[in-house]
Amino acid sequence: MQNEGSNQANNEALSQLLEIMQTLRNPEGGCPWDLKQTFASIVPHTLEEAYEVADCIETNNLSDLKNESGDLLFQIVFYAQLAQEQQLFDFNDVVAQLNEKLIRRHPHVFSSQDTPTTDAELAAQWQAIKAQERAQKAPTQQLSLWQDIPDAMPGLTKAKKIQQRVASLGFDWPSYQGALDKVAEEVGEVKEALAHDPYSEHSAEELGDLLFATVNVARHIKRDPEQLLRSANAKFASRFEKVAAYLGERGQSLETASLEEMDNAWEAIKKQAK
To answer: Which of 34, 36, 193, 221 lies at a 20 to 30 A Cα distance from 129?
Structure first.
């Protein structure tokens, strides 16, 4: 009975949300800002809301997660409303297709198929199912390999996706060591290119190869490169703020301190952190 009551409350809340969206987009009395929006104009807001959800989780700010999750959900509702107005699909179509996909991709849960016993077996099953989906959509092998990896995806995430795809086809090192050796190789090539001409297209290309290789190491040790870089950004920013405070306590500032003084402050803060 408790589940039935919860489901009813969820249905009522969702119905109200869809009605609110329709009202906001009503040409007679709707919100002028919402009425101006298009699929393309909402994309920056969607990305912003997704990053705010990620930030709540990564900073353990779970008290704001409910609010930010709602903002992200509203983006999906907005897209569905725009699509409904253009007679493309509606919110129910979105949910129905999602339900069908989740059931299809989890045969070990929703059918009599045996459950994979290892993470590797589960990953292989997942990739096989996705490969079947891509093959049904794409007329050529080239399209079927990359068609579900968006061009607009952040570079580090896209690199990981590409590497996962080719790894599922057997093109991969058996351990992180091979990927790490490739990073060392790419470092050497970057040094050589920079020594010849640091501003050349070749130097830029080699730096890109180094980034790609570094992502592969992160993938092998089951880490997300975007999360790792965000964490590194946060650590650097926090440490540099402490450098400013350290200098301030000694009558200096970032504007007046020399590079040597800032570097000494940086090293002092690093020692305090250990």
So the answer is: 221
